[in-house]
Design the sequence.
């Protein structure tokens, strides 16, 4: 009798799971068909996808250029800003005139009194390249976007993203100049102050750039790597409901990881803005302590998190370690839960890049922020953000499946 009861119970569970699988696949098909933000993979749409990817790649280069500009202290060499670009000095007289403009501002008077014209040219060209690259991004985005919009190549959801991305590009340009202006203040509040851009505006400038990059990459993936039905059949075990809950939890950790990576990168802007990487050049301890003694030196206490170099570096370390733990968890459990192949590759890539990025950060700190290492560390943060964006894209439909009644 016990054997018969077990057999009937097992058969009932099997029939139930078969029914759930069929309902699951029907729901997946419905989700994919009704989702307006998943374009078809036609040749025409692939062109749009590659265009988004190109714009994203250009933003990646801009972030890297911006990091080098900051590290070489070139950002305040151009003291004027024009929407459509500044004229390049064409002869020695025009270079001298540009140099005289720079000499009127605190960075020259306080830090670069002995700078020669040739040295000035180097930092001027660095800032000029960064600005012109930003304008090139604008042209590469707005001109094709206007054409694609006019020829009705965008769906409703993509049009919303175009407006959002266009707004971010404009805001990014304005924030860049707003940031530079903060370093051109002629009246320093303290004679011992060092002329530098506001760390708040620097962080905002980087935040806009990262948001723009993620927007481009995510949209490009929608066009070039749409989720397929056979890629969504994650549930290999018999207990489908339990498997779904586990994967949903994993996706929550992945989204949290994405937020942590973004926050860690932005905290890096505060480290750069305050030159906080030039103190406590040891790891894992900060000198002889795990927590620096001056961590709450400023009053009110909240100022320490954005204005105290020791606290800012401590926060960046803590966020970096937390990010590493989260990415490791997501990477391991993505393979354990047998997600589809692309999701597993993205998870492994994310984990590998996270460890490389952490290693670069430690090496940069121990070597007192040499430019090649520091620039690689900033570029690495965008690479890590790329990997987690890819992973989140591969698992984004899991949340949509919560509407399935059998769950």
Sequence:
């Amino acid at each position: 009798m016990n054997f018969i009861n077990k057999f009937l119970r097992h058969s009932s569970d099997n029939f139930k799971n078969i029914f759930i699988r069929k309902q699951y696949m029907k729901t997946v098909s419905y989700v994919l068909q009704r989702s307006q933000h998943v374009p078809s993979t036609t040749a025409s749409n692939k062109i749009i996808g590659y265009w988004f990817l190109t714009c994203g790649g250009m933003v990646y280069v801009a972030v890297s250029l911006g990091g080098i500009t900051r590290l070489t202290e070139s950002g305040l060499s151009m003291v004027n800003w024009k929407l459509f670009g500044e004229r390049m000095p064409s002869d020695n007289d025009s270079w001298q005139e540009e140099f005289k403009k720079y000499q009127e501002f605190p960075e020259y008077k306080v830090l670069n009194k002995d700078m020669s014209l040739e040295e000035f040219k180097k930092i001027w060209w660095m800032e000029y390249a960064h600005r012109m690259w930003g304008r090139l991004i604008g042209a590469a985005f707005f001109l094709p976007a206007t054409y694609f919009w006019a020829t009705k190549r965008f769906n409703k959801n993509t049009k919303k993203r175009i407006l959002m991305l266009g707004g971010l590009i404009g805001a990014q340009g304005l924030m860049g100049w707003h940031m530079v202006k903060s370093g051109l203040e002629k009246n320093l509040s303290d004679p011992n102050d060092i002329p530098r851009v506001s760390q708040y505006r620097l962080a905002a400038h980087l935040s806009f750039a990262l948001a723009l990059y993620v927007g481009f990459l995510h949209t490009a993936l929608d066009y070039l790597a749409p989720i397929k039905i056979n890629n969504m059949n994650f549930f290999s075990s018999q207990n489908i409901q339990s498997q779904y809950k586990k994967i949903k939890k994993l996706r929550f950790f992945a989204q949290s990881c994405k937020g942590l990576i973004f926050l860690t990168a932005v905290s890096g802007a505060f480290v750069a803005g305050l030159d906080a990487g030039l103190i406590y050049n040891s790891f894992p301890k900060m000198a002889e302590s795990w927590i620096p003694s001056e961590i709450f030196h400023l009053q009110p206490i909240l100022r320490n998190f954005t204005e105290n170099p020791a606290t800012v570096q401590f926060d960046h370390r803590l966020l970096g370690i937390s990010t590493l733990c989260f990415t490791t968890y997501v990477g391991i459990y993505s393979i354990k839960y047998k997600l589809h192949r692309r999701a597993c590759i993205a998870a492994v890539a994310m984990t590998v890049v996270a460890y490389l990025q952490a290693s670069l950060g430690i090496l940069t700190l121990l070597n007192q922020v040499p430019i090649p290492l520091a620039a690689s560390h900033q570029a690495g943060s965008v690479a890590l953000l790329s990997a987690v964006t890819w992973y989140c894209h591969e698992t984004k439909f899991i949340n949509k499946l919560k509407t399935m009644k059998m769950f």
Remarks:
- Confidence is low (pLDDT under 50) at residues 1-8, 23-37, 402-407.
- The CA atoms of residues 70 and 272 lie 8 Å apart.
- The two ends are 32 Å apart (CA to CA).
- The chain has twelve helices and no strands.
